[in-house]
Design brief:
Length: 198
């Protein structure tokens, strides 16, 4: 599913539940995913791209966000944080990177955790995946290239990543279910069709 919107790309007055599929949701001027209730994601792929602050990639006001599976990327000026007590899948929050840059994360043992061609420069990137493991150390690179790769709207699912031309942005060890390394957090902007937003 691919959604391009001026207002919220996905909006719910009550709650949002995603358990599979592939969703690309882009909003040019508001939150990408905006719920006035809880957000629960148990599977599938979600790439949610919102506008600049105060708009968010994923916005649930002060309600609970629970990630138990799936691959989630939320890009925007800010993001609501997933619950560290309700979620069983790990998440990180990062500073944004330049448009059309590859954001690559791999573990100390060189296992790939993310390779994503960032389509828009934003302040905040939220990422959640089963590839992120507690107590594991990771390196974040910006730049580089991918050969013979296939992707879903920039999220590479195959291919060979090269560090040539990439720069090391940060190294970290995952110590909590939700780890904030950068970016901005908090409710997103005004509401869309489902009712008032953050």
């Amino acid at each position: 599913m691919r959604i391009n919107a001026y207002d919220d790309a996905i909006n719910a007055g009550d709650m949002i539940y995603i358990n599979g599929g592939q969703i690309y949701a882009y909003s040019s001027s508001n939150d990408s995913v905006d719920s006035n209730g809880e957000i629960t994601i148990t599977g599938g792929v979600l790439i949610a791209i919102g506008s600049s602050a105060p708009e968010a990639g994923i916005d649930a006001d002060s309600n609970t966000i629970k990630f138990t599976g799936g691959t989630i990327l939320g890009l925007g000026g800010t993001t609501s944080l997933p619950s560290s007590t309700e979620s069983t899948q790990n998440s990180i929050v990062l500073d944004g990177v330049a448009k059309d840059s590859i954001l690559h994360i791999h573990s100390e043992s060189q296992d790939e955790a993310l390779t994503f061609l960032v389509p828009k420069q934003v302040a905040t990137i939220l990422y959640s995946s089963a590839k992120l493991s507690l107590s594991e150390s990771y390196d974040i690179y910006v730049g580089g290239s991918v050969s013979d790769g296939e992707s879903f709207n920039g999220l590479y699912t195959s291919g060979e990543f090269s560090l040539d031309g990439a720069s090391l942005s940060e190294s970290f060890t995952l110590t909590d279910v939700v780890t904030q390394l950068g970016g901005q957090t908090g409710p997103g902007g005004g509401g869309g069709r489902g009712g008032p937003g953050g």
